[in-house]
Amino acid sequence: MSGYAIGVDYGTNSVRALVVDTATGEEIASHVYDYPSGEAGILLDIKDPNLARQNPADYVVGFVVSVKEAVAAAASHDGFSAEQVVGVGVDTTGSTPLPVDASGTPLAMLDEFRDNPAAHAWLWKDHTSHAVAEEITRLATERGEPYLAKCGGAYSSEWYWSKITHCVRTAPEVAKAAASWVELADFVPAYVTGNLDPKTMPRGICAAGHKAMYNEEWGGLPSAEFLEALEPGLSRFRYETKAVPSDHVAGGLTEEIAGKVGLPAGIKVAVGAFDAHMGAVGAGAKAGVLVKIMGTSTCDCLPAPLSKKLPDVPGLCGVVPESIMPGQYGLEAGQSAVGDIFNWFVKNLSPAVYGNDGAAHAKLTVDAARLAPGESGLISLDWNNGNRTILVDPLLTGLLVGQTLHTTAAEIYRALVEATAFGALTIIKRFEEYGVAVDEVVNCGGIAEKNPMVMQIYADVCNRPMKISRSAQTCALGAAIFGAVAAGEHDSVESAQQAMTGFKDTVYEPIPENVAVYERLYTIYRTLHDAFGTKEWSGSLHHVMKDLISLRTEARG
User: Fold this and answer.
1) For residue range 502-519, what is the model confidence (pLDDT) as tens digits?
2) Which residue ranges does the record assign to the Carbohydrate kinase FGGY N-terminal domain (predicted)?
């Protein structure tokens, strides 16, 4: 094999194209295109902080520019030629649905809807539909529908049907003009292959299963009866297409697109999926290997064999067959804020002596790393942006217990890091509680790459070695892997991973004496977690501060 694949990674603010050697995984060129519309690519509304939309034209131009420039850069690499590119894969944010007309053209690209925010793409973090999400959860529960069992027991304002329903109710002119709604992960492959007909375009199981309540157990999407009970007329947006995993071919690159990007026409394009799921593949995910994509928030992805029936796991973002890789269940969990919590502290509470932004993080990390587990006498709950897993409650908030007149900024910073690690352990324990093995943990993203203190704390708290993915661009790499598989360059995702992925040499091993202290701290964390996060908890918090003081005294000797 001497071919190349291109992974196109649509993030929140930009799109990246990555050219990868399918035999070795060498990343020979890339290019990033920043979305020009709105603020950092996001269309906002000063009157409604929950609104976050994007201009579909940015996606179209972004594909052309990023791929064209990446291919041009790759041309300087010895042995590369555009004719050797065999496949393209696409990953995107999600749920990011957009309304289209009968030809598959986004309504926002038509003159009459260009200035209508509801006609643009509803970005994953648009929360205008929060009331609808609660209504969907309530209706499904009252009717005894099975739909919520595969998505953790509660529907989200960030997901497909919440957004479509809200549009129907608040922007009827857009809903009336829309022939269908298409996830960004489905739109891009459809656009570049010329298969834009909403009735026939390939739909990916990743987006459909995790965000649209699609499951073959009940015949695909929720029933027309359920959707009509939610909102009259909503069922016309229920597509009948069978959703498929990303090793399937969406089509071949059209002559028009191929000419614009400098590639031969007909190159195979894989069915799209979400960034975190393809990132997990790019990091080496397989059964028993949990991948943590760590950034402002964290997404956890874990495959599990389809041959072993899984129970419904409460609190997860989804249990979807083949959403991560073929032949495996795709389990998704996550934390609503990780890096965002550290950034919040630096921006709002860090003393001036530490400086701003990156410099403050670096200095706080140095001081925090000098502290032993338990030495701060602090414990925190990592809910500054609500709780995604396992409580699925956006109305929870952060908490810090144990501060005194002598508490330092570095101690608080470390307590916040530890809180996110405790949240990570809570997710692992939920997997194991329902019979899903977590044998290995692989981390990727900026935090994993740049902060050894955080990784060591995670290793100690979770009592597991923490590996780091070799690639810093695992989402784009995962997309390239699916492009290679769809093109037949590899006969399976597993064989492509073996050739194209790997780990860094550094492995963070748990330190036994730290593990022992963190086991005691985690007991306190779970007490607070259950006390503030569940209705069912009953007990006393009287011992919490005393226990923290005892641990602090022991740590300080």
Assistant:
1) 999 999 999 999 999 999
2) 4-282
